[in-house]
Amino acid sequence: MIDLHMHTKYSDGDSTLIELLKIAEKKKLEYISITDHNTCQAYQELDTIDYKQYYTGKIISGIELNTSINGINIELLGYGVDTMQLQEKLKEVYPTKEKRNKIEKEQLIEKCKQLGITLEDANMQYFDVGIHKYFSTYLLEQIRKNPENKKYFLNDDTWNDAMVFYRKEMCNKESKFYIDSTKLYPTMQETIELIRSVGGLVFVPHIYIYEENSESIFQEITNNYKVDGFECYYSKFTDEESKTLLKYCKENNYYISGGSDFHGIVKPDIEMGTGRGNLNIQKEIILPWINKISYFA
């Protein structure tokens, strides 16, 4: 069994690198890839420890990078990247977490003012990046203190879950909380070129989580961009969705990957390796491309 999509504390997961490795060992995963958002810091730490003390399987270097397509925020996965080179390049093209939080703060507070939402912590003095990671998470907590504010949200899911709030409200032009953050990140083509420049293969993750935009994003990618593969196995995919992607990849010569998108207690219903109980990804799916990448941690 393998899992090529997971996150540590270096981005928005809650596990340290060593904790993550221990879980992977306990799960008896043969291959893993740590795919933190816009950073290779986990691999920098990996270079300083004897990781075989904690995990005896193989690690494919990886990353998940933010980009956009048709004004919609999406992500790309890079596998087999030279993490040392990539980390240096990331400093030039990706905003720091501080910059992202500053932009989120300015725009979201303005949205609240326009809607007439009053916040208990009006000056946001209790926002702690160490606890909340992203400003939007803290703001959602503040908004939810007044149940009447629920009327501004699209549905119960966006009201209750910070990650769903980001995906379906902040990234949705039809939402009252939409923020145009596409200028924060490289374009789709620039992101693809960035991954390739450090020896990586480009994969499109979790295409169906974009819901009503999924089909248009898929068509735009396959018609206008050269990527290497798709994540066909994912915790939130139905069997039918996975089968559809697998069929498309096999018929059009795309590589296949899969992963749980493990975050630890941040996503308590998703287990490493098995996702929501629907995953048991076999290493055979990566055999067509594993020898095409040269960088292993």
Description:
By secondary structure, the protein is α/β, with parallel strands linked by helices. It folds into two domains: 2-94 and 185-290, Alpha-Beta Barrel (TIM Barrel); 97-181, no CATH class. It has helices at residues 17-26, 41-46, 83-93, 97-115, 129-132, 135-143, 156-160, 162-170, 188-197, 214-224, 239-252, 287-290; strands at residues 2-3, 31-32, 58-59, 62-69, 72-79, 201-204, 229-234, 255-259. The strands form two sheets. Strands 4-5-6-7-8 form a five-stranded mixed β-sheet. A three-stranded parallel β-sheet has the order 1-2-3, with no helix packed on it. It is globular and about 55 Å long. The mean pLDDT is 94.
What is the fold's blueprint, element by element?
Blueprint lengths: L1 E2 L13 H10 L4 E2 L8 H6 L11 E2 L2 E8 L2 E8 L3 H11 L3 H19 L13 H4 L2 H9 L12 H5 L1 H9 L17 H10 L3 E4 L9 H11 L4 E6 L4 H14 L2 E5 L27 H4 L7
Summary of the model, kept short:
The protein is of the alpha/beta class and 297 residues long. The protein is built from twelve helices and eight strands.
Task: Report mean pLDDT, rounded to a whole number.
Answer: 94
CATH fold annotation of the largest domain? TIM Barrel
The multimeric state of the shown protein is single chain
The CATH first-level class of the largest domain comes to Alpha Beta
Computed structural class: alpha/beta
What is the helical fraction, as a range of percent? 25-40%
Spatial strand arrangement across the major sheet: 4-5-6-7-8
Low-pLDDT segments, ≥5 res: none
Tell me the number of helical segments per DSSP (H or I, 4 or more residues long). 12
Find the CATH superfamily of the largest domain.
Answer: Metal-dependent hydrolases
Q: Give the biggest sheet.
A: 5 strands, mixed
Question: How many E-type strands?
Answer: 8
Number of domain modules: 2
What is the general shape? globular
Terminal Cα span = 19 Å
Percentage of residues in DSSP E strands: 5-15%
H-E string? EHEHEEEHHHHHHHEHEHEH
Which value, in Å, is the CA radius of gyration? 19 Å
CATH architecture classification of the largest domain: Alpha-Beta Barrel
